[in-house]
Amino acid sequence: MKNSITILLLLFTVAVSTAQMRQWTLEECVMYAVENNLTVQQFELDLENAQIDRSDALGDFLPNLNGNTTASSNTGFSINPSTNLPTNSTQFNVSMGVSSNVTLFDGLRNINRYNRAKMSAIANQYRLDNLKDDIRLNVANAYLQVLSNKEQLKTFKAQYAVTEQDLKRTKELVEAGSLPRGDLLEIEATAANQEQQVINGESLVLISRVNLAQLLQITDYENFDIAEEEFAIPPSDILDNSAKVIFDKALTFRNDIKFSESNVELAKQDLKIAKGAYYPTLSGFFQYGSRYSDITLIPDGNNGLYTPGFTDQLWILDGISYGAQLSVPIFNGWSARNGVKRSKISLAQAELQFEQDKLDLENTIQQAYVDVGTFEKAYEAAQKTLDARQLAYDYAKERYDVGLMNAFDFSQAQSRVDNARADVIRTKYDYIFRLKILEFYFGLPISLN
What we know:
- The chain has 449 residues and is an alpha+beta fold.
- It is built from 10 helices and 8 strands.
- Helix 4 (109-175) packs antiparallel against helix 5 and helix 5 runs parallel beside helix 10 (407-441).
- The two termini are 49 Å apart.
C-alpha cells in the first residue's frame, strides 16, 4: 500500500511538472484566447439576448391568455349581484374568469419587429466573429514578438560567449606582454556592453511573454512560455494578387463589413416600424367569467327564491364576451412623424458608416499591401548588410589576431555585425507579420507553417 501511494505521488508530481512546463504553439494561443477572452464572453451573452429578442418578437403574433379571480367581503351598502338592486347587508363575493387578446393588424409593426430581431441576432454574430478576428491578429503579433525577442536573446548570448573567449585570450596575451593593457580594457568594455544586451534581451522576452499571457487571460506568467521554434519566412504568393483583388474578396467575407451592412438593414427595419405608427391598430378580444355571492337569489320554479351553492352559481352566472377594437391615430403630438424622421436620419448615418467602413478596409489593405513589399525589401537589405558586416568582421578578426588592428577598431567591427544581426531578426518577424496580415485579409487562416 505504501509503495502504491508513493507511485501515485510520483505520477502526480510528474503530471504537475509537465503541465507547468507546457509550451504553447501559435494555434493553441489563438484558440485559447478566443475561447477565454472576457469581451468575447460578453458578446456571446449579447448574442443570447438578441436570440431571446427574436423569441419575444415571435410571441407578439400569438394571442395572450390571462386568468383572474377575486374574493371579497362587503358589509353595509352594496349592490346585490343577482338583482342589481341596492342592499344593506354583509355579503361574500367571488368572481373569476379568463381573457384573451390578439393583435390583428398594427401597420405591420409586429412583422417588422420580428424581421428586425432576426437581423439583430445575425448582426451580433458578425460583431462577435469580428472581435475574434481582431483577437487572432493581436495574438499572432504578440506571439511573433516573443519569437523575435527570444531569437535576439539567443544571438546576444552567442555573441557574449564569443567575446568571453576573446577576453580570455586577450588576458593571456596581455600578461605575456604581447598586447597592451588598453586592448584588454577595450575587450572588457565590449563584454560588459554585451552582458547588458543579454540582460535587456531577457527583460524584453519576459515583457513580451507577459503581454501575450494577458491576451490569453493567463496570470501564471512564470510558467507560461511559447514553443521553442525558429520560423523561416513562409512561402507565399499573396502578392500575385493586386490590392484591388484582395479588397474585393475581403468585402465578401470580412465580419466587420458584414456587421456594418447589417446595421444598415436594421436601420431600414426601424424605419418600417416607425412608419407603422401611421396606421390604425385592430385587435380582437375574448372574455369568459362567472361569479358567486352568498346573497344571490335564484327562482326555484315554485314561485320561490333560493341561494344556489358555489359550484351551481359558477355555472348559472357565467358568461362570455368577445369583439374587436379599432384604434385610429389622429393626433399624437407629432410623435409618429418625428419617429419616422429620426429613423430616416439613423438610416442615413448607418449607410454613411457602411461606406466609411468599406473605405477604411480598402485603405487598410492598401497599406498592408505596401507594407509587405516594404518590409520584404527591408529584410533583404538587412540580410545583405549582415553578410557584408560579417565579412568585414571576419577580416577584422584576422587582422586583430595577428596584431594589425587595435582592440577599439575590432570592437567597432563586432558592434556593427551585432547590430546588423539584430536588424535581420527584427525585419524578419516584421515581414512575417505583415505577410500574415495581408493573407488574413485574403481569407487565409493565421499559421506560421
